[in-house]
## 1
Amino acid sequence: MTRPYTPAELMVAAAAREIQDDEVVFVGMRLPLLAFCLARSMHAPGAVGLFENGVVRDSPAQAFLVTMSDGPNVTGALWCTEMREVMGLMQAGRVTLGFIGGAQVDRFGNLNTTYVGPRGGALRLPGSGGGSDIASLARRHVVIMTHERRRFVERVDYVTSPGHGGGGDWRARTGLPGGGPSAVITTLGLFRFDPVSREMVLASAHPGVTVGEIRAQTGWPLSVAPDLGETAPPTEQELAMIRTFDPEGFWTGARR
Amino acid sequence: MSKVLTLAEALRRHVPDGATVVLGTALECLIPFAAAHELIRQRRRELTLVGPISDICFEQLIAAGCVRRIVAAWVGNVQHGAAYAFRRALEQGIPCPLEIEDHSNFSIALALEAAAQGVPYLPTRSLLGSDLLSTGSRARVAPCPFTGVPLVLVPALAPDVAILHVQRADAAGNCHAWGPTGVSAAAGKASRAVIVVTEELVDPAVIRSDPNRTLLPGFLVTAVVHQPWGAHPSPVQGHYNRDHPVYADWHARSASAEGAVAWLDEWVRGPRDHSAYLAKLGQARLDRLRPGAAKLAEPVDYAC
């Protein structure tokens, strides 16, 4: 069945709904940036975005962005400062929500963007960037990634960005100030975390995706919420807005 | 006391083989690509590169065989994700073996800030529980002496030289930069020598007209290089936008070691210097990168 949106557009819409009005959001590039722009234009007009390069803005950029340091992200910003300022504010608890992506994630939401495979013979990935800082320091964070079995593993090969560690109160015992991952948005579904065990739980499957398909792409016995729902697809208005921020589908994929 | 040198001369004097160099300090903008390319032309070897994320600048220096060690949070191509040259060097030693000291963006900022402030380390609550502390990192976990909470102590990092791209500087190195500056100021204060590469060489009165805009005062700066378009293909606010197709081209061609070398031969080793590189790009292409109508800040009044 053909749907009037791409998987990435659905993910952007779902990510935008995680942003509440007036939140202070640490925005990553790609889909999180589009999610911030969408939320700011729809239901969260008071949201403020912090970028790790030092840009702080409360309005979507007026032209397409490939990176957070592109000119249009600077024009009309509220503040252009240093990295230590925005990271320091996040460390002080002033950032309520951060977004990160990863190559590998595990059942407790730990993320790997550094080494895949056995130590010594591993495949090298680009590394943390600001991901580990966002995962450590934001009051909560949302993970956005492609859902494949090789990426959804029982235990990540390398913890670049800590989630809930080994589960339970691991973060508190480790001394991490931030609350950890609150949701994982993938190409197949939306996941949240059990409040006690901190294990990832399937909260909603995207339209047209079955629980069986999601389980087949997940490398551990996946828990499913008793009130499992279907992820709401992007509305026409949301789609129109996403396409103004990504007119060529550079980040959200071919659709025309 | 002019500190103005040509790019080639500044790098010959201040970036010897084996030097620890911090560059790409404003993340995806103001990347001193002209300097990186000149280091490749001068066949610099055994460098340690320091930076938060480098975009394709570190990739190109690695592919050219200039680098022995990387101290960074992220190495690759921001537009496309992949880090072909970085991977080939780390995994296969092509074109030469590479070591990595893994960081996060914040820990790089703190390492430079500690050196800038003259303290042996700065503490953070980031990175606790992360394996980043186990792969080449010099950071340590220790309890806070006041509260007992666990902290990561990030040791100071003082590079031999910082290469910083800015919009304008005077001949003494007093410089203005605008837009996000990432870790640029900390990098400049932490380093033993600072090379400022500037789009515009201006009269000192221009700097004095707006001292709040100053990235670094000249007493911290060792050399000044006037190099318009010196950050291309990265963007410089008010001067030129990002030339995205260059990153796509590098992505496509650096997938193989031969392709990366061919790219460097064509775009770096072929052109004699940055002017020749710009001539090869062509005026029409450069014109397309120029920003639209000026968006001037409201003047501020420094009257007394």
## 2
Amino acid sequence: MLYSKNKIALVDCNSFYVSCERLFNPSIIKKPVIVLSSNDGCVISRSTEAKALGIRMGEPYFKVKELVKKNNVKTFSSNYALYGDISRRVMRTLKQFSPQMEIYSIDEAFLNLSSIKDEDLLEHGNKIREIVLKWTGIPTSIGIANTKTLSKAANYIAKKEKSGVINFINSKKIDYLLTKIKINDVWGVGKQLTKFYIKNGINTAYELKNIENSWIKKNTNVLGSRTAMELKGIACVFLEPHQEKRRSCCVSRSFGIKVTKLDELNEAITTHCLNAAEKIRLDNQVVKKITVFIRTSPFQKDKNYYANSKDIDLPVSTNDSIELVKHALDALKNIYKKGYRYQKTGIIFSSLKNVDTYNKNLFSKINNNEKRENLMKAIDLTNVKYGRHSLSIAQADFKKKWNIKKQHSSKIDTTCFNFLPIVRTA
Amino acid sequence: MKITLPFHINKVGAGFPSPATDYVEDDVDLNAHLIKNIPSTFIIRVQGKSMNSVGIHDGDLLVVDKSLNPKNFSTVIANINDELVVKTFIKEKGLSFLTSGSKKIEDKINLTENPEICIWGIVTYTIHAL
């Protein structure tokens, strides 16, 4: 069969954020550890030991606080500077094993292993794990199969059984193992589809695999039948080695403390706007439409809830921070109402385009302003060199009273001289 | 962390330009010199004085490559009692030891007798400010 040539490995880092924290801190190896989302809101990574205590993924921190205290669970605020660097190292290491790779998320990548002999796949998988662990200190699990969806399934089993590598290719156990995967744990099956499948008596990956094509085609959409085909071993979703550039960019944060004044919201929006502008400049993109939003906490019983947003269609696409901040603040002024305690604000850039493809407007002051472009470049360079927000525009607050809570951060940054990991001599 | 320095072969002077100008000149790239394996190399700061005799001082930066294996007299980062520390790796009569700069016998740790100790990485350079 044509498709049997297709061999895909999904490499997934085990409890990635926890593993990153353990890298320079051996005292938390083999102990229960959790990492919290920004603002210390929810649990987003758990060590095996923490999972065993019954701490669930995504659970709000305040709900598990007692459990954490009782069992001395080591708790960390998320440290994305560290996780980002370790992720790049893992991906770079993986790249050696296959030039055809798709980085799927911060801790997952698909590798094309079609050049490896079937009988060597398991050994090859073990070699990948061994090298990634030695070079970067990060443990991984690997699923190998003929399609992306099956490699995800194999990976799921590898994690569950803690077996390191599971190879579905030429395996007689595939069907048996697919019965162990609940339908909602199948890659590509979302909440709505799960409900629909369960209603129709499809409860496991195995059952979905054995549903007739005609039924799937009639009752679900293209994505639904793709997933079913992939479970049968027919590749429909291919590797995307070249990541497409983003089409929109959102920066938003919850406030560490509730904010009431327009001045403070201005500072926050300015900072978010600068972050977003820096991101799109890095990708050589310009923005045509910006959206500013604010809201109060939906969980405050005695207070009125208020949420609003404002879109601004820019006359000319731009990535000029100064121009963008001006518009963003206008939008904010428009939707701000006195007397509310705001919990969250953010900015969305949409209709992003590449700098080279957008139509230069000869009559626009913004685009012809080479000085301004150079200023933006200088700002970005300075901030790369001396750390985020070394150079900013006056509206952005450098004190950042409202900035996110990070009470438990490990404060290690492997890419910044001021926050390098430390070893003692003894 | 990219550090480059301009590297000029010919001295600046008046008169006839040096024919060597054509052979110039790339910037000196310290990263390329110090870092052989990018994904496995970390920069780590040292705290403490007990490795002074090997040339490692308080506040120095260590270039540490996790992908290498220790050889006799390698300077290594090891995980000892839940802490990362700098040590010297020594092989003697088929046995492996870790020592500090002090050369006292009681500082010698026998790795065969302490299987829980593992080598975290190999120090390939130290960056010391004068």
